[in-house]
Structures are given as structure tokens and as C-alpha cells.
Amino acid sequence: MFRQLTPTLYVSPQISADQVEEAKALGVTVIINNRPDDEEPGQTNGAQIEAAAKAAGIAYAAVPVAHGGFAPWQLDGMAAALGQAGEGKVLAYCRSGTRSTLLWALTRARAGDHPAMLAEKAEAAGYDLTPVRQIMDALSAG
Fold first, then answer.
1. What CA–CA distances, in Å, run from 78 to 21, 41, 83, 100?
2. Considering Cα of 93, then 94, then 98, then 104, what sign does the dihedral take?
3. Percentages (nearest 5) of helix, strand, coil residues in the chain
């Protein structure tokens, strides 16, 4: 269920509180929730994941992304959350893992990572960065 984008980053579709322990076993020290609460009926809400994460000794950050697109504050939030991991690993999740992957790619492009390298990593994990490629190119150009 968790797909590895980099040696220190996993992305995933919606997780349950039970899967927090699975993440911990992989060395995850930060869980990033990129999904707005109540996006669909029956979805595990962020407070439940946050409680399970804290009980497991894992930091939690919420950087929700609705279907309307990405804003600078979301890139700032993702960068800050990724920075909390230190030597540990990060698990970012949303409904399918796509928004988490796109937000990661935009954040890393803004930090100077090459868009082609980011696209290669995403593709290897089963995600397509085409929807944000022009924005990535613009961000990486400065």
C-alpha cells in the first residue's frame, strides 16, 4: 500500500489508524495528511490519524489539498513537514497518493530538484507528474 518515492519518502492512499504502526516499522517519523477531512463518507479523519501517530511517537502534519489545485502555503507546509523528519522517513497520504506525490514534486522543484528526476522517481512509484510539469519547470527555473 505504501509506495516509496525516495529512500526517505513513502506516499499512500488514505491510511487507517491501524496502519500507523506499519509506517513506524518502516522507520517513518512524520506522517503528512494531504487530504481534507470529510472528502468522502467513511474516510478516517485526520484527528484519528494524528492521535494514532502521536501514540506511536510519530510527528503529524496536516497540509490538505482540495481538488482546486496547489497554493504557495501548501508548498511551504509540505516543505516544513518534510523537514521535520530529520534522519527518519516520511509517509504522506491523500485519497490515492497522487496529490501527495504532486505536492512533493512541486515542493522539491521549488527547492531546486530537476523536474525530470522528480518525474522519474514518481513514475517508478506509479504516479504521473504531467498535471504539474509546467509548474515544476517554472518553479525550478526560479
1. 22, 26, 8, 9
2. negative
3. 45, 15, 40
Give the Cα separation of 112 and 139 in Å (integer). Answer: 8
Please give the pLDDT value at position 14: 96
Indicate if the pLDDT at residue 86 is higher than 90: no
Confidence check: pLDDT of 142 > 80: no
DSSP output for 25-59? HTTEEEEEE-S-TTSSTTPPPHHHHHHHHHHTT-E
CA separation for the pair 109, 115 (Å, rounded): 6
Output the nine-digit C-alpha cell for 45. Answer: 479523519
The DSSP 8-state label assigned to residue 21 in this structure reads: H
